[in-house]
Design a protein that fits this description.
single chain, about 170 residues, alpha/beta, Alpha/beta knot, 5 helices, 7 strands, globular
Length: about 170
């Protein structure tokens, strides 16, 4: 049996245009490639805003531009001087603040049971993770269970897995 199929292009791919009540809180990211990947992720999944905490993205970086594929021009983002103030405001706006970090109190992402329809997913620096001060502000800490010897994965890959699961959990997938 021969499957008749045709690969879709950027021009003929069906799209859902709405953004979702999901934001990314990016704490201290340093890699332009990861930052570019997060812009592209936000575009692909309909994430409404990227907040860069404790550092601003270098939008002149060729690596960021190559990885983002121009998504940095379409996605709403801001650099935040006072991350704690932002997180408290998001909580007032009924966002659940979820820290994606392996800790002694984090739970597997698949076991998360939240009622909120608005999610702020916090991810951390490539080397040190989410800063201790911001971890304390999270409503819940979650992690992605790992099967191999390594205890972590690339931050943009982890964000993609977590954001996709959360969006499906909210029945937006």
């Amino acid at each position: 049996m021969h499957l008749k199929t045709e690969q879709l292009t950027h021009d003929n791919t069906p799209r859902q245009k709405a953004t979702l009540p999901v934001v990314l809180l990016c704490d201290g990211l340093s890699s332009p490639a990861n930052t570019g990947s997060l812009f592209r992720l936000a575009d692909a999944l309909g994430i409404e805003h990227l907040y860069f905490l404790n550092g601003a993205p270098d939008l002149n970086s060729n690596r960021l531009k190559r990885t983002s594929r121009t998504c940095e021009k379409r996605i709403s983002f801001s650099s935040v001087e006072n991350p704690a103030e932002l997180i408290l405001q998001l909580k007032k706006d009924n966002y659940s603040i979820l820290g994606l970090e392996l800790t002694t109190s984090s739970i597997p992402l698949k076991d998360l049971n939240i009622k909120s329809k608005k999610i702020a997913l916090m991810i951390g620096n490539e080397r040190n993770g989410i800063s201790t001060a911001l971890l304390q502000l999270a409503d819940q800490l979650v992690h992605i269970p790992m099967r191999g010897q390594n205890s972590s994965m690339n931050v943009s890959h982890a964000a993609a897995i977590a954001a996709y699961q959360l969006i499906n959990h909210l029945n937006h997938g």
